[in-house]
Amino acid sequence: MCGNGVLVLGALLLSGCGLLLDTSPRPDQYDAAPRDTGVVDARAFDIGPRDTAPSDGGAPDAVTPEDGAVPGDAGLDASMSCPAGAAGGALIAHYTFDADGPTEVLDSVGGHHGTVAEGRHCESGRCDTALCFDGTDPDVNHAVIPNFDDVSLREGAVEFFARVNRVGSFGLVSRDALGTTQPGHLTIMTSTDGHVVARLQVMGAAGPADSKWLCSEATVAAGRPFHVGLSWGGAGGLRLFLNHSGRLMESGFVVIDNGGAGNALCGPAGQADGVDGNSEPWYLGVYSGFRSSGMSNGLLAPLDGAIDEVRIYGTAMDFSGP
Fold first, then answer.
1. What is the Cα–Cα distance from 173 to 310, expressed in whole angstroms?
2. Cβ-proximal residues to 231 (8 Å cutoff; 6+ apart), any chain
3. Which residues, 6 or more positions from 31, have their beta carbon under 8 angstroms from its beta carbon?
4. Is pLDDT above 70 for 34?
5. Phi, psi angles (nearest 5°) of residue 16
6. Domain boundary assignment for the chain
């Protein structure tokens, strides 16, 4: 759930972090040398600016489509192209949300199906149907996909489109739980001021769980669709991309709110660990770090916005622009 990479301000968070200082040795497979399988190029679509550096030397500019088009009601901008297929055969799960039943989240590639509350599918224009959430009751406003028992993710990646209706701290993709000894817990969410942040739980040298945080340098804007890619393992280690840009805040912190305000300490890319020690489900649209393993309660930070075209890979991916 959370390690010592977060300075927690709320009493609930303080109690949660204390449970995560695990002392058991990490699994044997976690000590194995990483496979050198290279990095697959995932540049299959054009969704806007590559360079998100500040234009005036001040705070990072908000990431918006190049043509300034206004997104439709469900969030995917008409200037964006949908992903056009994975390179190298690395795709192991793909959730388009286009052919789902009312409570289904169907994997069109590997049969790793999930569920969602009825009424959460919505028309989203360019990529057809998305999942739309209203930022209320997290026990209802989320999708869940069971753990992939047939796939090891020592290296891999996840990408998706999303939109927030208002700038705030929202869960996007989360494989996390409270008080566990597992390495590889993973969360992608937004900060209170719109940075995209990713957290990987790793095992410290002496055993306790630790958190490695990556924070996008740029921010997202309310009503504007954006693309997120997170890759782990492989030659580049842990890497976060926002709209094809891998520019990060490599120091300082951003504020997240996952049941109480806390500071995520931002660091550089390159952490070598993967998520293969993680047996938690994939949650979409919430933060799952305060749920007990095996339970569905304790979900927090429900998304007020949309998520679409979720793809999960079994190989590290390069989501950067040219």
1. 9
2. 39, 156, 157, 238, 239, 241, 316, 317, 318, 319
3. none
4. no
5. -65, -45
6. 6-25+37-46+71-318
Tell me which CATH code domain 6-25+37-46+71-318 carries.
2.60.120.200
Q: Which of 106-120, 182-196, 243-257, 287-301 has the lowest mean pLDDT?
A: 287-301
Please state the rounded mean pLDDT for residues 15-29: 31
pLDDT surpasses 50 at 12: no
Report the side by side order of strands in the sheet with 6-8.
Answer: 6-8, 261-265, 253-257
Query: 28: helix, coil or strand?
Result: helix
Strand partners, 209: 203
Average pLDDT over residues 85-111: 85
Q: Could you tell me what percentage of the chain is helix, strand and coil, using 3-state DSSP and rounding each to the nearest 5? A: 5, 35, 60
15: left (phi over 0), alpha (psi -120 to 50) or beta: alpha
> 83 near 160, Cβ under 8 Å?
no
- Return the higher-pLDDT residue of 238 and 211: 238
- Do residues 268 and 17 touch, judged by C-beta distance below 8 A? no
Cβ atoms within 10 Å, residue 179: 16
Place of tokens 């052919």: 99
Strand order through the sheet with 282-284: 62-63, 209-220, 195-203, 186-190, 171-175, 282-284, 143-145, 114-116, 104-105
Tens digits of residue pLDDT in 114-169: 999 999 999 864 578 999 999 999 989 999 999 987 777 888 999 999 999 999 99
Contact assessment for residue 306 and residue 116, using Cβ atoms and an 8 Å cutoff: no
Q: What 8-state DSSP symbol labels residue 61?
A: P
Rounded CA separation 190/220 (Å): 9
Asked if the model's pLDDT at residue 106 lies above 70, the reply is yes
Do β-strands 209-220 and 195-203 pair in parallel, antiparallel, or remain unpaired? Answer: antiparallel
How many C-beta neighbours within 10 Å does residue 201 have? 29
Q: Give the DSSP per-residue string, 239-264.
A: EEEETTB--B--SSEEEEESSSEEEE
Structure tokens at 128: 């057809």
pLDDT at 52 exceeding the cut of 70: no
